[in-house]
Specification:
By secondary structure, the protein is α/β, with parallel strands linked by helices. Helices cover about 45% and strands about 20% of the residues. The protein has 2 domains: about 200 residues, Spore Coat Polysaccharide Biosynthesis Protein SpsA, Chain A (Alpha-Beta Complex), CATH 3.90.550; about 80 residues.
């Protein structure tokens, strides 16, 4: 019997009980027929009460994936998904009520789709303490899906693909703790498919404080390290970190959308990211393992 499910929404979660419940609530409120989509939540080895919390929610499928890494968790969800399409978002995101309908419309009005990349906006979570410098940094540099799509990549905070296409490519690289979304998008574009930006498909993402921004940078460096096979990968990653630092500094210097005070505060974040990158590269070169947090 043919499944009526149009979209399978896959949400990995790790130690994030409060925010994943908000995410699920927003997913249940989509302006798409309830029969047309399913919600699959994969707990990635949480050590708090997250798994027990999501099990209490009716109308969703809940799995566990003990192998560390959100891409391993996404693959677990992909393995049971029934939809023609699979949509991904993160446990801390709040999708707009038109999110799924807009993603599907974009997919069905374009040919040769590999990924539909939805837009990401930022909000201040009431439980977080966000400093002005971090808020300004997020608005300048974080999660620009339109720019990512132009480069042929996408982030899984807001992503839709044909389920069969991802399965044909073997799913995400489960060895990676960061960067698996860009890796998958590149494999899709290398196979001749397109990444299309969909401005109408919006998820709201909580702005991060400085500590979270730096944690993310450590994960990104670790993910790049894990997927780089060249002999001189420490040199390669060092050069990439220098280029990023220079590029962002120049963009900030010539920006007209912020005051001098804001630009100086963001420059402080950029500099901290650069020094964290150097520290993480040195750690990995010395033989330590990449981390998920």
């Amino acid at each position: 019997m043919t499944s009526k499910v149009k979209v399978s929404v896959i949400v990995p979660v790790w130690n994030d009980a409060r925010r994943v419940v908000k995410c699920i609530k927003a997913l249940k409120n989509q302006k798409l027929s309830p029969e047309a989509y399913e919600i699959i939540v994969i707990d990635n080895g949480s050590t708090d009460a997250t798994f027990e919390e999501v099990q209490r929610v009716d109308g969703i499928s809940v799995l566990q994936e003990v192998k560390p890494g959100s891409y391993a968790a996404r693959n677990k969800g992909l393995s049971i998904a029934k939809g023609q399409y699979v949509a991904f978002t993160d446990s801390d995101c709040v999708p707009d009520e038109n999110w799924l309908a807009s993603l599907v419309k974009c997919a069905e009005t374009h040919s040769n789709i590999g990924v539909v990349a939805g837009d990401v906006s930022f909000f201040k979570d009431e439980a977080d303490e966000i400093d002005d410098a971090s808020l300004a940094y997020e608005s300048f540099f974080s999660m620009n899906q339109e720019e990512y799509a132009r480069k042929g990549v996408c982030i899984t905070a807001n992503w839709l693909s044909e389920r069969s296409t991802l399965l044909e490519l073997g799913g995400f690289n489960a060895k990676l703790k960061s960067g698996g979304d860009h890796d998958m998008a590149k494999r899709l574009t290398e196979s001749g498919l397109d990444v299309v930006f969909c401005k109408q498909a919006i998820v709201a993402h909580p702005a991060r404080n400085k500590q979270e921004i730096l944690k993310k940078r450590r994960r990104v460096i670790g993910g790049s390290w894990d997927k780089t096979d060249t002999k001189f990968k420490s040199v390669k990653l060092l050069w990439e970190a220098v280029k990023l630092y220079i590029k962002r500094t120049l963009l900030l210097l010539f920006s007209k959308k912020a005051s001098l005070k804001q630009r100086l505060s963001v420059f402080g974040i950029i500099s901290a990211i650069f020094f964290v990158s150097l520290s993480e590269i040195a750690k990995l070169t010395a033989g330590q393992q990449s981390t998920r947090s």
